Every structure is written in structure tokens, then in C-alpha cells.
Amino acid sequence: MAAKNRRLLELPELNQALLDQDLLAQWFADLEACAEIHEIVVKQSPTSMVGAGMVGAGEGGAITLVCALQLLQERKIRAVQLRYLYQNNLLWDTIMVVPDGYQLIRMEREQ
Fold first, then answer.
1. 44, 52, 57, 79: which has the fewest Cβ within 10 Å?
2. Helix 65-73 vs helix 21-34: crossing angle, to nearest 10
């Protein structure tokens, strides 16, 4: 039973940073140029997600990087989670709007 419990406690390492407007825009540009985006999940309010039908949504209703950045900058959403592949690492980055800018939380996932 102890081995099973230890397995449950193995959580991915988290990294955090506070971004300003310029760093946020640069981070999105870097993702566009260097990463393979798998999924973009946008959080509009405490109880709702944003998806198909939103202005700026791409083909099939998917939110684009450009749209996600614009929504964050205009503070029309609470957060966005980007799931992507970068240098053979699967990363999940969550960016939340905070009073001092944007909180970035990164988690590396196993493929």
C-alpha cells in the first residue's frame, strides 16, 4: 500500500514567472516560432471555458495563439493554458491575468 501511495504523490515540477506586457508578447512570439502547439484552453470565468464561436477562433472553432494573446492583453479572459511540444518536451503553460501582469505557471508532462 505504501508504494501505491508514493506513486500518487509524484507530481510534475512547477515553474513560475511574472510577465509584463512586453514579455507576454515575446513569449507568444517564441511559441509561434519554435513550438508545436497541441491545444489552447481558455478560461473566461470561474465556471466557463471559451471555445468554438469566439471571435478569433480558427478552423474548427479552435482558439489561435493570436486570439489568446489578444484576449489576455485586453483582460477579456482569466487565463489560458497552452499545451505544446518544445524540443521533445511536452509542456503545459498556464497564464493567468493578475493585478501586476500575467502569472506564468509551467508544468512538464510525460509524453
1. 52
2. 170
